[in-house]
Amino acid sequence: MGKIIAIASLKGGVGKTTTCLNLGVSLAQTGKKVLLVDTDPQGGLAVAGNLKRITRNGLVQMLRGELGEDEIVIQAGKRSLFLVGSGVETLDDLAFLQQEGNNGHLGTAIKGLAMGFDYILLDTQTGLNSLLLQLLAHSDSLLLPCSCQAGAIKTLPLFLKSVHKIQSERNRGLKLEGVLLTMMDSYDPCTTEVEQEIKKTFPAEIFFNTRIPLLPSFARAALHGVPVALLKTAPGANRAFDALALELEARQHNTGEETL
Ligand SMILES: Nc1ncnc2c1ncn2[C@@H]1O[C@H](COP(=O)(O)OP(=O)(O)OP(=O)(O)O)[C@@H](O)[C@H]1O
Ligand SMILES: [Mg+2]
Q1: Atom 30 (ligand 1) nearest CA
Q2: Considering only CA atoms, which residue is closest to atom 26 of ligand 1?
Q3: Is there a contact between 103 and 71 (Cβ–Cβ < 8 Å)?
């Protein structure tokens, strides 16, 4: 079974969906078989990956027994990259997904989907909600994107503390894959201040060495529903995610993953 990595944050708009899609593409390019799962009922990943052009079905329809795994797992082009949508289209669907999260069926289903893949990246809904707690109970690790702004950094201690509780009470195997600094703007003096604050407050080891720059190409790619690697007008924009994929891979081969 592949490694299930939940991509989560307490603060919204920090780059979870962008990381899920673009890291997925970069991992697939290294030859890994990757499944991206949109567990966010808002369907950000399905929009960013233009999945709804192919199907509006997903986890909800599989959990209801209406469709099989092979009918909801969609291959992205010819790559070894696959996507599953949440399948949430109505309020009833939303209530159903939350209920299936709470009773553990969603987590079990995702573990079932993970067979045959190297990595399963879960794009999650912002915040510490019951769905996220369930997903973390069934995940192997957690990747925390954090935009390089004071507001986002300040949410990290509470989030790390809450996840520590999940680890001790519900999933002892849950590891911290790393905190990923996103939307780094080297021309913004605030970024330097935030970096200094980070150095003072957190152990350096919890951060990925790779940082994701603030680039208009990411917003443009999202607008077109494609990973940034496919934007013809932005060659090289995916370089940071390629580096992140290599760093993530390297972490799997040593025991240096951080416990929370
Ligand atoms: N490195 C970046 N440079 C510029 N824009 C970015 C970058 N990363 C993400 N964005 C843009 O910022 C916005 C928020 O990103 P994204 O949707 O990935 O965040 P999120 O954490 O998934 O948000 P939500 O909480 O709504 O799920 C999007 O419009 C995205 O295109
Ligand atoms: Mg999102």
Answers
A1: 219
A2: 13
A3: no
Query: 3-144+216-241 maps to which CATH number?
Result: 3.40.50.300
In this prediction, residue 258 carries a pLDDT of 52
Residue ranges per domain, the chain? 3-144+216-241
Query: How much distance in Å is there from the Cα of 105 to the middle of ligand 2?
Result: 23
- The CB of 16 under 6 Å from ligand 1? The reply is yes
Listed in sequence order, the residues at least 6 apart from 18 whose beta carbon sits closer than 8 Å to its beta carbon are 48, 145, 182, 212, 218, 222
Long-range contacts of 222-225 (CB under 8 A, 24+ apart): 222/17, 222/18, 222/47, 222/48, 224/50, 225/47, 225/48, 225/49, 225/50, 225/53
Question: Could you say which ligand is closest to the alpha carbon of residue 11?
Answer: 1
CB 81 within 8 A of CB 36: yes
Whether 226 lines ligand 1, by a CB cut-off of 6 Å, is no
pLDDT tens string 113-169: 999 999 999 999 999 899 999 999 999 999 999 988 777 788 888 899 998 999 999
Q: Identify the nearest ligand to the CA of 15 by its number.
A: 1
Ligand nearest to the CA of 212: 1
Evaluate: CB of 14 within 6 angstroms of ligand 1.
Answer: yes
**Higher model confidence: residue 147 or residue 64?**
64
Q: How confident is the model at residue 191 (pLDDT cuts 50, 70, 90)?
A: confident
pLDDT tens-digit readout, 228-257 = 888 777 777 899 999 999 999 998 877 545
* Of 1-5, 50-54, 102-106, 209-213, minimum mean pLDDT range: 50-54
